[in-house]
Backbone:
């Protein structure tokens, strides 16, 4: 089956975008980016043929294609939300057609992750009227993705998820412009993220979420009255399914519903069947609780005591962990384990099997090895669809204000009937990321660091033993003694000599405060 | 509450003068390091003072089986600190029930019992404790643990021999004796 017939066969599922025959037939309705349209009528067939033809000469003149003109009534369903006021609209909402133009033409949205959630998100957003979409994913397509990551086909295996997903949506949804980025989120500079109005995450890792959360919080700027400068706050909508939230549910059931034993039971049962749970969350950096505020609700990854693994293994996972953390570094001291490399996994599997036989443990298999080493948790397509839909709705509401938004965390459990619960995460007063609003600190370029330390010992700080860093350097630390000694000469250097300029940031730690205070230097003229 | 449409005109003029952003792990580490309060038997030093995420620890126990020795560890703090514990490695080959011959350390708070409320300080105290009270019930070096359990005198002799660079059960150990008060 070639790509175009396959896509056409799918049009039933994505019918909302199929142009009506009358308009699609008119001359100026040629899609900018190869929209595949329904083959069932002759008027559209010409467009489809053009699209197929374009496939052969891919990349030619794509960028200068004339702007796509929508067929009549294409956005009727969106206008219903935007040109009249609903009971749940935000107070500032003013119904108007300009809102639709903003959505279609100006609003730029970033989708992080083009996997299970990402595919759903891209489809949902593109069909909801978002047209300027960027998608970023460092991963390539694996054959095991194809059951649920529906923008990918077998021929795409091994290719970049972001590139293939973007190409598919551009081809399928007329006028939609998805720009792919095949890299890590950490590879992009701040300015890249600054260009978006919204960020939606379909991630499977906590570190990536923390990173993007911290970045978005750091982009928020405050004016002299400590109010957020409009436009510097980029809302983040975070979707997650299973894996990242399954254990979190367990903890919550204990924390929030003490006494409601049914919830606890429900969650214990949840460990038996995985993949049916998810969460959606809206984070307004600087305004609402951020991802880091609730990081403590994630338990650390299940780890086994090293001594158990080394001397008293009892379950297959112990043997696999032994092969991974003890045997691999011994055998290949210079080669990092690549959990995506089948040869590496096979080596671990054989070693784990040997050890299991030694201890009379049953059940070490290749699949289990892969599961333990990569921490694989089953994914369920419908859960992804539910969570992505919730996230896309929030994106739409945030972009237009047409309805009140999720406040601010929703959990979904489809495992045993349907259960959802919404509650508000509160900002953590000593959150390392979002409570760290820089304080202006008056000083001059010619004064020594010692003068600054002395002023920090006075009101309002009263720091007795500060540790000062900035620009990625350690300027002075009160402890430990070796570090104090080596940084002491800096106390007699002036701020200018230390390379500090007006507007530079310093981080000052002290026993008196739960986290380092951020100072923004304001040089006196 | 918030409406992007109403904000869109005012977007950016943002190019901040900030420079590099400081990660949560760095902030927390800075706090941990500046708050270090160590006994005279422990000393940390930083090969590069600008990089607080990598440092060395030396422990010189003043009592117990390991009195007179000087033991060196490296600490590496990852970007997920304090959500994940620091990585600690013993740099010498030593004879200890809870430290294997490759330098891996079995200390509960470095793996299964790690919690973000713990700090670098607590890890250092935990390591020192291993030298004061080696734990035979949690062995990484099984022979040493069995010895400690069944033949305390023999274990003590083995430790003393190993500290001087001698061999125990066909393993030659590094000389870990402290010379005078040097670090």
Residues:
């Amino acid at each position: 089956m070639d790509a175009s017939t396959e896509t056409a066969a799918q049009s039933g599922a994505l019918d909302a975008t199929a142009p009506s025959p009358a308009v699609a037939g008119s001359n100026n309705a040629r899609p900018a980016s190869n929209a595949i349209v329904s083959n069932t009528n002759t008027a559209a067939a010409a467009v489809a043929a053009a699209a197929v033809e374009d496939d052969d000469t891919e990349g030619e003149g794509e960028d200068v294609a004339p702007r796509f003109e929508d067929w009549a009534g294409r956005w009727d369903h969106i206008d219903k939300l935007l040109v009249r006021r609903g009971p749940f609209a935000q107070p500032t909402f003013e119904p108007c057609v300009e809102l639709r133009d903003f959505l279609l033409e100006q609003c730029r949205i970033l989708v992080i992750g083009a996997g299970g959630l990402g595919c759903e998100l891209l489809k949902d957003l593109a069909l909801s009227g978002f047209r300027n979409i960027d998608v970023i994913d460092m991963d390539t397509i694996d054959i095991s993705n194809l059951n649920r990551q529906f923008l990918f086909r077998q021929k795409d295996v091994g290719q970049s998820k972001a590139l293939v997903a973007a190409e598919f949506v551009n081809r399928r949804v007329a006028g939609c412009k998805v720009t792919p980025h095949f890299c890590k989120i950490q590879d992009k500079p701040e300015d890249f993220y600054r260009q978006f109005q919204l960020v939606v995450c379909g991630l499977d890792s906590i570190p990536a979420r923390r990173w993007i959360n911290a970045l978005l919080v750091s982009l928020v700027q405050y004016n002299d009255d400590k109010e957020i400068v409009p436009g510097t706050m980029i809302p983040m909508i975070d979707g997650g399914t299973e894996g990242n939230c399954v254990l979190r549910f367990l903890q919550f059931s204990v924390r929030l519903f003490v006494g409601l034993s049914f919830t606890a039971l429900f969650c214990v049962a949840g460990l038996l069947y995985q993949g049916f749970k998810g969460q959606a969350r809206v984070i307004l950096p600087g305004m609402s609780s951020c991802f880091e505020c609730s990081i403590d609700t994630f338990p650390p990854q299940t780890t086994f005591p090293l001594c158990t693994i080394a001397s008293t293994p009892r379950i297959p996972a112990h043997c696999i962990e032994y092969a991974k953390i003890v045997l691999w570094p011994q055998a290949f001291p210079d080669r990092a384990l690549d959990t995506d490399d089948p040869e590496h996994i096979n080596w671990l599997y054989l070693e784990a099997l040997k050890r299991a036989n030694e201890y009379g443990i049953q059940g070490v298999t290749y699949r289990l090895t892969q599961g333990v080493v990569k921490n694989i948790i089953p994914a369920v397509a419908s859960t992804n669809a539910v969570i992505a839909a919730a996230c896309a709705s929030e994106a739409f509401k945030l972009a237009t204000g047409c309805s009140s938004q999720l406040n601010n965390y929703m959990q979904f459990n489809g495992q045993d009937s349907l259960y959802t619960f919404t509650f508000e995460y509160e900002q953590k007063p000593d959150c390392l990321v979002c409570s760290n609003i820089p304080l202006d600190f008056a000083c001059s370029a010619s004064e020594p660091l010692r003068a600054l330390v002395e002023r920090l010992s006075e009101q309002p700080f009263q720091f007795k033993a500060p540790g000062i860093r900035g620009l990625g350097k350690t300027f002075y630390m009160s402890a430990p003694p070796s570090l104090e000694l080596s940084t002491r000469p800096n106390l007699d250097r002036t701020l200018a000599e230390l390379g500090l300029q007006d507007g530079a940031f310093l981080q000052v730690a002290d026993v008196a405060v739960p986290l380092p205070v951020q100072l923004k230097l304001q040089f006196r003229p | 509450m918030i409406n992007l449409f109403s904000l869109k005109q005012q977007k950016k003029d943002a190019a901040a003068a900030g420079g590099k952003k400081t990660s949560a792990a760095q902030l927390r580490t800075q706090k941990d390091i500046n708050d270090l309060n160590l006994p005279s038997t422990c000393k940390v030093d930083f090969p590069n003072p600008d990089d607080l995420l990598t440092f060395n620890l030396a422990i010189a126990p003043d009592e117990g089986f390991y009195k007179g020795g000087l033991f060196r560890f490296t600490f590496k703090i990852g970007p997920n600190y304090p959500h994940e514990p620091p990585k600690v490695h013993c740099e010498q080959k030593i004879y200890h029930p809870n430290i294997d011959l490759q330098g891996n350390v079995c200390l509960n708070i470095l793996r299964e019992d790690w919690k973000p409320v713990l700090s670098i300080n607590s890890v250092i105290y935990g390591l020192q404790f291993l030298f004061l009270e080696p734990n035979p019930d949690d062995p990484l070096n099984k022979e040493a643990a069995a010895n400690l359990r069944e033949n305390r005198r023999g274990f003590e002799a083995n430790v003393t021999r190993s500290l001087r660079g001698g061999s125990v059960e066909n393993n030659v150990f590094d000389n870990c004796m402290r010379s005078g008060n040097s670090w």
User: Anything to note?
Assistant: Residues 120-132 of chain B form the longest helix (13 residues). Residues 8-20 of chain B have pLDDT under 50 and may be disordered. Strands of chain B lie at 42-45, 54-59, 71-76, 87-90, 167-168, 171-172. Chain B has one domain: 37-172.
